[in-house]
Amino acid sequence: MRSALVGVIGHVDHGKTALVKALTGVDTDCLAEEKRRGISIALGFCPLAVAGGVIDLIDMPGHERFVRTMISGATGIDAVLLVVAANEGIKPQTVEHVGIAGLIGVTRGIVAVAKCDLVTASQAEAAGRAAEALAREAGIADVAVVHTSALTGAGLGSLRDGLAALARPTAADSADAGIFHLPADRVFAVAGFGTVVTGTLRRGALRVGDAVELQPGGATARIRGLQIHGQAVETAYPGRRTAVNLRGVERADLAPGVALATPGALTAASWLDVELRLLASAERPLKGGAVVRLLAGTTEAGARVRLLDRDRLEPGATAPAQLHVDQPIA
């Protein structure tokens, strides 16, 4: 089977959730506050069946207050669906989301010019060209543009075909299948079943009955059950949104940002060696010794920057550095 994990990104109120619903029939705004405010606050997940496989869509909040939630959802994505409203064009969170996608190494995507029923064809084309150029500047070189309308259904067939083309064979036989890693973005308890964690399986395969280690902390547990989009499975492979029911660990024992891994494969650390790139859109240089917020996988922590070959990092530049985080992360 072919699959891909695709992050749906873009500015607030540009039609991401409406487009996902038009494609899948699923309204990913599930919270009462989301319904009341008309914007996405939490991550929304749903599958899109395509010929020969499935696309896992993650609808990410576009409001600037929820950018941390967006970054958490971007963990492990294969490609992006950048939604830009034809009647508004590029906006601040469009730029921010595309920059984040480039930082995490995304190179493939689709620009969906939404709400094309509200503008002329030339206006829609201009919005598409601007969004395509923005994506390419961020390193998303393999990108196509599709003009759409969730209201009229225009372009949805082409968009579905474009998303299907992003799917790749499931890595059931990958060389690292014996070493798994899943950063958890949600942890909760289900009556009668116990502790459940969900996240994107970054590498390796998970199987019912496997022993797992949880880092930071080093607690151990065993997989009681697995689900992918509500369907029970015996094995989960890389790139799939996976719910893991654990035996031997309590919900209260798991902190936000915990990662599941093959026992002995991960270790928690307070010093990280990194390559640091400051976005060209940054308003000012980053000075050595600066205190920043580190978003790594689904973990958020404070960190102090130690630049190794200069005193400050200019916008658009890259440099080797170390980060001293205020809590161990895996």
UniProtKB/TrEMBL annotation:
Pfam annotation, one family: GTP_EFTU_D2
GO molecular function (one): RNA binding
Species the sequence originates in: Skermanella stibiiresistens SB22
Function: Translation factor necessary for the incorporation of selenocysteine into proteins. It probably replaces EF-Tu for the insertion of selenocysteine directed by the UGA codon. SelB binds GTP and GDP.
Domain Tr-type G: from-to ranges: 1-170
GO biological process per UniProt: selenocysteine incorporation
Keywords, comma-separated and alphabetical: Cytoplasm, GTP-binding, Nucleotide-binding, Protein biosynthesis
Official protein name in the record: Selenocysteine-specific elongation factor
Database matches in InterPro entries: EF-Tu_GTPase, EFTu-like_2, P-loop_NTPase, T_Tr_GTP-bd_dom, Transl_B-barrel_sf, Transl_elong_EF1A/Init_IF2_C, Transl_elong_SelB
GO cellular component: cytoplasm
Localisation per UniProt entry: Cytoplasm
